[in-house]
Amino acid sequence: MVEFRIDRRTGVATYVQIVQQTKHALRLGLLEPGDKLPTAREVVEATAINPNTVLKAYRELEREGLVEARRGLGTFVTRSLGGGQATADTPLRAELTEWVARAREAGLERDDMAALFTSVLDDLDDLNDMGDDA
To answer: Any idea which of 1-5, 50-54, 123-127 has the lowest mean pLDDT?
Structure first.
């Protein structure tokens, strides 16, 4: 089961954090179709947020077709995300973990690493776009 972590310092709405964390868990294979999400009460107890915030996040996930609320039973995952290669135990994750450790040793902070990673992804997207034009 997924455990939500709310960071009130980010400026990102709490319900959006729940949606994002659920999507990450789906992409990594930590949540799969049929899995039950924690109840609103469980999330409230673990995070001290308003129950309506949890319900708003779950409604957004349902609107996107990722979960389904079953009256009296809970909220269940209906589909996964990602290509299946981004699971939590993939060799790529191990390599990325090593890279993050080296980046930290080099003095980079989380935001620095995220910016660098995004920059590389953008560069690769630009190269792919140029190849499509040819």
So the answer is: 123-127
